[in-house]
């Protein structure tokens, strides 16, 4: 009697809304630096993860950072990216310090870039605005985070360069 092959696993597909950003899916690691007028400059290591549940129009996002020299944990955040077919995107992020962001922006699949501006910064007594730009640069993921507070205008706070692992 011939053995019956096991059934094929179901086909996993990327939702059409997520497809233009599918290059982000996976784990990224690298280093960054931070500065702001009210703090001393610092360097950090980071791991970003972008994951996608099959057939859902959303990307799950998480970030963890740690001090470059000591490995001591620093900041973490997680949320969801909801790309739309028209090139717009909505992002929600909850930070470990209690701050919550709702961001809206655009993505360019050809340029492999995402530009986000805060629509809401919640549970923050000082932070008024946060903008983020993600771009592919020579096969690596570069980002810049700008921030404005009660006392400072919008300016660069964080920037990093990450490689897919």
Automatic annotation (TrEMBL):
Residues 18-164 form the THAP4-like heme-binding domain. Pfam families: THAP4_heme-bd. It catalyses: peroxynitrite = nitrate. This is THAP4-like heme-binding domain-containing protein. The lineage of its organism: Eukaryota, Viridiplantae, Streptophyta, Embryophyta, Tracheophyta.
């Amino acid at each position: 009697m011939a053995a019956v092959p096991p059934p094929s696993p179901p086909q996993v597909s990327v939702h059409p809304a997520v497809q233009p950003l599918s290059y982000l899916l996976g784990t990224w690691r690298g280093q960054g630096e931070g500065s702001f007028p009210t703090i001393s400059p610092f360097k950090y290591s980071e791991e970003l993860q972008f994951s996608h549940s099959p057939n859902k129009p959303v990307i799950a996002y998480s970030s963890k950072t740690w001090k470059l020299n000591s490995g001591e944990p620093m900041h973490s955040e997680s949320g969801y990216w909801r790309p739309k077919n028209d090139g717009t995107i909505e992002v929600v992020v909850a930070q470990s310090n209690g701050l919550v962001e709702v961001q809206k922006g655009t993505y360019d699949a050809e340029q492999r870039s995402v530009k986000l501006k805060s629509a809401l910064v919640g549970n923050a007594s000082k932070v008024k605005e946060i903008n983020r730009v993600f771009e592919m640069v020579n096969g690596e993921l570069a980002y810049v985070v700008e921030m404005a507070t009660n006392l400072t205008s919008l300016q660069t706070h964080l920037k990093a360069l990450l490689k897919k692992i």
